Amino acid sequence: MKTSLATVAVTITAISLSLANPTPTPTTTQPPCPVVTSRGICPTCITLACLEISTLTQRCDCPTPVPTLIEDYFCGEDGASAACPTFKCGSTSYTIVEPTGCPKKGC
Fold it and tell me: What does the DSSP assignment read for 26-69?
């Protein structure tokens, strides 16, 4: 069996390139931990008189209780809203689904 130097060189180059640039392994990214949002809205803002229902699924590696993000939309100096937000509903009710099988935290 005859093997030319060109074939050997191509094979060595292919092997060294595959070692230098290994195929990246796919990474899985977890979604961020859930956060409850509390909004303070200027009373002159018009919001829909409805209640949005939201379910938050907690993970074992997320803080407990679920943190609250406070967003304030203040009124301008003249009593009118400086920037009224646009939301589906004026309020949101949260249901938090607790994870199961988590290791105990603390002592």
Answer: P---PPPPP-EEEEEE-TTS---S-EEEEEEE--TTS-SSPPEE
- This prediction has a pTM of 0.54
Total residue length of the chain: 107
**8-44, pLDDT tens digit by residue?**
333 333 334 444 555 555 556 777 899 998 888 888 8
Residue 77 DSSP class: T
Element (H, E) at 71: strand 68-73
DSSP state of 74: -
Cα–Cα distance for residue pair 66/99, rounded to 1 Å: 12
